[in-house]
Give the backbone structure.
Amino acid sequence: MKDKKTSASIPQEEKKLTYLEAVKDLSQIISSMEDGDLNMDELAEKVDAATRRLEYCQKALHEIEQNIQELIKAGARYTAGME
């Protein structure tokens, strides 16, 4: 069962992305920021986009971690029942 307090769900529009796509996007955004050819408006947009991708990746990893913990607990209950 998921903890409602700590589990922030991924926005529907970002669920279309895979984790790998989000990481690649984040990498490209960071590269474009490092190039230094952006004006202040473009830089602000890139920072916002990078923040959204980073939050997406963190949420995705958190959901995966929760799923793994649930599987471990279920496996422990199953093996305990076999004894």
